[in-house]
Amino acid sequence: MGVRGWAAAGTGAAAGAVLGWAGRRGEPLVDLDPVWVGSGARAAIQRRYEAPTLRRLGGGLDGGAALEIGCGRGVGARLAVEAFGAGTVVAVDVHPDTVQRAAAAVDGLPAGVVSFSVGDATRLDLPDASVDGVFDYHTLHHVGRWRVAVAEVARVLRPGGRLYFSELTRRATNSLPLVVLTAHPRQDRFDTAELVAELGRHGLDVGDRLVEHAGGAWVLGAAVRRRG
Ligand SMILES: C[S@@+](CC[C@H](N)C(=O)[O-])C[C@H]1O[C@@H](n2cnc3c(N)ncnc32)[C@H](O)[C@@H]1O
Description:
The protein is α/β, with parallel strands linked by helices. The protein folds into two domains: 28 residues; 195 residues, Vaccinia Virus protein VP39 (Rossmann fold, 3-Layer(aba) Sandwich). It has nine helices and eight strands. Strands 1, 2, 3, 4, 5, 6, 7 and 8 form an eight-stranded mixed sheet that branches. α5 links the parallel β2 and β3. S-adenosylmethionine binds next to α2, α3 and β2.
């Protein structure tokens, strides 16, 4: 084996050892996810690519009521108003610190349009069929019981309402770099077909309103809540 061969074998062995270690411990070496989620680059992608793409796929909300699950720094809640025309937005995140910081993202919007609160996507504190649009920017893949969250989203959406999603599939979450550098649930993650099928089981039809990137590691789409 030449030098390159040894180098490749060494890299592979090191990667395997790290993956094995991370897998056994169930912990990453570091968790860079919060750094990424709080970065200007993340906000720029949300603003310049994800929101326009989701709007093209699923249309606007025309003054309707929106919910965002896993609002993080709050950019999605602002975009629900500015890019989708939502009249009101309830934005929830399971982490209280995150919710407290998110309020700054809606500075300058009229008071009362967006409200942030601590909330769990698997137990939404909203009545059945009460919202016109739900935004999921990279949250479902963080939720252990993501199927329960899908059922909750379907429950709170009005017939004809839309779920807008931008999600990482297990091709991303269970890849070596993300296993080593981020904390995500790794069990029972979804690929695009499984996500679309689970949405369909709960009356949320995606059809051709779907865009995939990075070989299916990143998927954006809009699902319409079936009537009846
Ligand atoms: C990768 S971050 C995405 C944040 C933001 N939506 C974005 O795109 O930048 C995932 C967010 O989901 C939140 N989250 C995780 N599990 C949740 C749950 N069960 N219910 C609500 N939020 C949750 C996390 O606290 C975190 O803010």
